[in-house]
Amino acid sequence: MLLAIDAGNTNVVFAVHDGHEWRGRWRIRTDAERTSDEYAVWLLTLLQHAGLKPHDIERCVIGTVVPAALYNLRRLSREWFECEPLVARAHLDWGFDIRVDAPHEVGADRLLNALAAHERYKGPLIVIDFGTATTFDVVAKDGAYLGGVIAPGINLSIEALHRAAARLPRIGIGRPQAVVGRNTVAAMQSGIYWGYVGLIEGIVARIRAEQEEAVDDRLKVIATGGLAPLFAEGTTVIETTDQDTTLDGLRLLALRNPAPIFTRTARRDDP
């Protein structure tokens, strides 16, 4: 079985794939100071609840946009699952070209999304990921990664609005019943929701105007991330939502690349 770890700025998602399906997904708040043993205490309990044992895990793959978290995630894989993890990097075999100025600067999550989306939906594509940042990534017909757009995430915008304006409360995100709010919370929810719908539609339109002649086809729009279904309700621009895009990218990357060699200098129970 494969343990896939997607470490984002807000949450770390752990998932186990048995070669046919995902057996479980669990998330924990991202904390770069969390030790490998702390991860293990939490994760092993969840694995047991799903009927899985540590020795069931034969491979581990990690994708992270938080470099400081990588050290303890690597130790988790080595010490508790006896696997040397494959870490998503630009130099690996992705099966496509990374056609940007500095491939090593592209976030692993964006490349993973491109890999999984092209495998499932073919191209050309725009992949929107509603995470800590909202990203738009362009995938060519042959699967090549062409670059993209990074905008502030919805929750960051809500928090910034609350912090910068003394009389504005912290609100939850939801689709408002009307565009014009009749109280402060409704007005804020409308601004955030419909403002992001406008951002989505505007950026997709500009990407299409700029790229469709070059890619010689219509760009399909795929959305992923926890808020993707919510925003798909508000616009016809988003054609498909897929919650497993990043995890599937990790699984596909592990299939394309050999497992790193695991070496042991001492067992955990050695004196």
TrEMBL record:
GO terms for cellular component: cytoplasm. Substrate binds at residues 107-110, 184. The active site is at residue 109. Keywords: ATP-binding, Coenzyme A biosynthesis, Cytoplasm, Kinase, Metal-binding, Nucleotide-binding, Potassium, Transferase. One of its GO terms (biological process) is coenzyme A biosynthetic process. It comes from the Bacteria. Pathway: Cofactor biosynthesis; coenzyme A biosynthesis; CoA from (R)-pantothenate: step 1/5. The keyword tRNA-binding does not apply. Belongs to the type III pantothenate kinase family. This is Type III pantothenate kinase. The lineage of its organism: Bacteria, Pseudomonadati, Pseudomonadota, Alphaproteobacteria, Acetobacterales. The gene is coaX.
